[in-house]
Predict the 3D structure of the following.
Amino acid sequence: MRKNYAILIVLSVIFILPLLITITNSFMSEAEIWLNYTTKLSTFDLVGGITQKFVKFVLIPASVTLSQYIAVLFEQPTFIVLLMNSIKITLPVVLGNTAVSLLCAYAFTIWKWKHKEKFFFVYIIVMLMPLQAVLVPNYIIADWMNIKTSYLAIILPGIFSPFGVFLLRQSMKAIPKEYFEAAKIDGASDWYIFLHIVLPQMKSGIAALSMLVFIEYWNLVEQVIVFIKDYYKEPLSVFLSRIADGQIGLIFAASCVFMFLPLWFLAMGQRNLEKGIELSGVK
Amino acid sequence: MKKVKDQAIWFILPSAIGFIIFFIFPFIISLGYAFLDKPVGGQFVWFQNFIGLFQNSSYQKALRNTAIFMGLCVPLNILCSLGISMVIKNVKRYKQLFTLVFLIPLVIPSGSMVFFWKMMFANDGFINGIIVNLGGSAIHWLETGWALFVIVLIFIWKNLGYNIVLLIAGISSIPKDYYEAASMDGASKWQSFKFITLPYLVPTFVLTTLMSVINSFKVFKEIYLITGDYPHESIYMLQHFMNNMFSSLNYQKLTTATTVLVIGITLITMGLFKIERRVAE
């Protein structure tokens, strides 16, 4: 029993260390960052007989300061612009996909068309395709609609992505059929049933879906490379690697600001994320 | 009693229209391009594009690397996550907390960790510092075949949590009586793992394999952000090939590669489901 805890604690420390170093180092002064993370030799080093320097990871900064955060949030207008870009792409996808998928999942639940399972199967097949297989069709349609360099090229396919329909239909299966039938017999319309019976019971399903979609679009990379040609229109997910090449004095704070939302969502709704993962399994 | 009409069609319409416009329709167009010799006014050339694609050395490399990467990651990911899930299942307290730890890498955007990984594996990075201080010689992690190893490591770090959640759910669904009956019959822990846990987890393994295969394409994010447009050739993946074709707008190569990928994933999915059905019987 003791041994199990020991294994888990050691593994947890290893897993959490990259995150921990990123967080603690975001409170480090710029001078200390340069000292630890640049490896160019100075004349001072050469005199001291040092011929090679390596990166040092320091868990606790020598002096704690908020200067990185102040620089990132108040002195770097580009950072805020790029953060807004991430929001401009992610928010419409999360809201749109959840709304469209909710309606569709409900339709699949109550629909009596005999070919509906076949139609649903098409959704599943497309859902299983990795991004690499979907990008070219996305590009073709964006080209036809002339939205190739706009966020719409990323947002629209995101809204209609079949994953949400699948996840919410899975989640809706938990609502007993009798609820619908009873309401139908009482003369309730489908809209009424959807709004007053289904929606209130779908809270955790909706939370799970929006979390998974949020995580995916907050971490957008492939679509950006294909569609966005202008640096200042890039979301932060891609631009962070450019900051990492240049302004290392504020990279840790920039990284922390960017991962704050997903981490906060995880802390608020760990159970929802787990539920989302469990439901997303095709069975 | 009032007669209520079936209104399902109105609920499905927004999704169905968008789904057809943004996925099904361009998929069909893409499939069409794969059989033409040029995008505008092209002629039907049967499988010429496919033959050309498979003879392309960059594509061969990308396909091989993607296959090698999956061959390493998918089993490794399942083995590690199975081990950890069994341990988490066996502790009495803090189960949620330990699961949380493994879920954290999954939600952190790849971009936020780029600088850390670069500093870890750079030529004058943290790991080489340790190696040199111990008297070894530095390894060029990202510029040699070691790059594949580094990427596998980062992938496992990021994706273990996903499988752990699925496996813990799978393990929890096995009825407790089975283990009690087995231990009454004098079965050892290893025996009950081998004869109860493993067979019952087969559907979960099929699921985790499928999801790991699909998720393993996402490793491009890390590779691109850490190593840029020109990674070491051992981590040149399918998406790198596609990006090159996008920048030269080679519709034939793009659509043919897409078609091959769609067929490939469909075959893998069908194969896995067939395995599951056979085991279920």
